[in-house]
Amino acid sequence: MPRLKKVVEEVIITLSDDVNPSICASFKDLPQIFEEKDCKTRDKLLFDFLEKINSIEYRPLESLFEYIHRRTKDYFEEPFNPIKLIYENWKLKIIFDDPEKVKGKLTIKAGSRTLFNKFLTFEERENNILEIDYLEKKYFPEGKDEITFSVRGQKKPVIRSIDYFENIPGNKKIRILQHDCCNNSFEGSNLRIAAVQLKYHAYGEDSIVKLTADETYYRKVMAILEAVKEKADIVVFPEFSIPFEYLEEIQQYTDENGIIVVAGSYYVQEKNLMKYGKLFTREFGDEDLRKNISPIVIPDSKIVHNEKALAARDERGCGFEEGMEAGEVNHILKLREDLRIGIMICYEYVNDELRKRLIRACDVILVPQTNPSPKIFYRKANSELNIQLCAGNRAHIMVNGIYTWGNDKKQYMEGLQELL
């Protein structure tokens, strides 16, 4: 109600001085309609509101009032009101204005998928909150949903929209999606992962991290892929170690050998923007520039990708440097019904909130990184594995490089490579 009153005040301020005073009064009456408890009095207020609409001669304003009247009327005709939907850590929380209005068994669906189909418990009615664990339902949302609420005998369902962003510290939002690889990848009983550690030179230029990649380096990358093609189901390269220009040939390699390649990561640059549609599952635009993305190359499929949400110290803006653009997409790979792979790009793994969200859903976490001091990663991995959130075998694989940085091309920094 305070929010509605604030909106009404803002609308009145925008009206011109020559607007009929009765129009302003109509806006001011809106909160009173919602606050009125007596149904007959409320119906009269709605009727009066409609009468004022009919007297308006300015058509655009009349249409606006008609829309407000229709939505207000629909609101009161709904059999019950889920006033707020909150999505966090794979759980949907539904807050009702009055659960006692839910008469009988409640059915809740996301699209055609049934999430809930039973009576509300005493605790749920008492607390005005219903919580649905999506992982328990084996439901992985795909961006946005229309959530429908219905009970037997109800003329039409109550519908609410939701956008499935996870909120993580630092005012960051990330969308965690599942990509189904069941038809085009791993079929064995033992998952074989090749964690590649190779030498490369990375440097900062034009607010992004770049890689020195000549013909010799290209041959080295392709030789590594050739060497593991009958020994691995997934190949993972370190962060910053694979440039965009290698992806087309890596795609051909995965198609021929049935191997998934996590192609390190690189920064999105303007020179390649128009080429993404050919290789990736979606087009890229100006809003994607300076994102640090990890291409996930899958057999017989276009490339999906993860976007690094949290920048490491050397990637953050400083002075005139803009720094890394925070990403907001993370894909989980479903290899089998009981086997899912999560991918976190370097510094993301240190974030407890994001890490725990992926651990709840995944059996294996892959962490491509370019990191001279990975000890904190291993401490956190050991802590997570010692206090597992889920049953079954779990593994966290740190994939680091041996690299030089910036102007110093002689001093190699070697990050430990480890399976935990």
From TrEMBL:
<dbReference type="InterPro" id="IPR036526">
    <property type="entry name" value="C-N_Hydrolase_sf"/>
</dbReference>
<dbReference type="Pfam" id="PF00795">
    <property type="entry name" value="CN_hydrolase"/>
</dbReference>
<dbReference type="InterPro" id="IPR003010">
    <property type="entry name" value="C-N_Hydrolase"/>
</dbReference>
<feature type="domain" description="CN hydrolase">
    <location>
        <begin position="191"/>
        <end position="420"/>
    </location>
</feature>
<protein>
    <recommendedName>
        <fullName>CN hydrolase domain-containing protein</fullName>
    </recommendedName>
</protein>
